[in-house]
Amino acid sequence: MQFNDPVEYYQAIANELNEIINEPWVSIEVEAKLFADSINLKIVFFRTDGSRESDVDEIMLPEYFYELAKVVSNEEKGLYKQCDFILNNNGKFDVNFEY
Questions:
Q1: pTM here?
Q2: In the predicted structure, residue 1 carries a pLDDT above the cut 80
Q3: Phi and psi for 43 in degrees, rounded to 5?
Q4: What distance in Å separates the CA atoms of residue 25 and residue 52, rounded to the nearest whole number?
């Protein structure tokens, strides 16, 4: 699925994270590293008891982050090398890019 606006990707990412993590959580951190022909995701969520879990089976997340790179790129910077996405359980998120 392709969107034209980064906010649509952020919403799709947040929706999938909510869908695939079926237990109470405080925050979820995703580190997406973009390579020439692939993307690698590290996903960690933090439970309400303070423990953390990284065994997460994503569905569309790799595609969302890969396509997001194209939407937020520009000629000067090119595609991002890394995207850090943090989602809090109140629905707020933070996203940062390294070029």
A1: 0.94
A2: no
A3: -120, 125
A4: 9
DSSP 48: T
All structural domains of the chain with their residue ranges: 6-98
Question: Cβ(62)–Cβ(43) under 8 Å?
Answer: no
CATH number of 6-98: 3.30.500.20
Instruction: Give the pair of three-digit tokens for residue 44.
Output: 């960690």
- Specify whether the CB–CB gap between 27 and 48 falls below 8 A: no
CA pseudo-torsion sign 58, 19, 86, 55: negative
Cα 21 to Cα 74: distance, rounded to the nearest angstrom: 33
Give the tens place of pLDDT for each residue, 19-55.
999 999 999 999 999 998 899 999 999 999 999 999 9
**What is residue 75's DSSP assignment?**
T
Amino acid identity, residue 69?
Answer: A
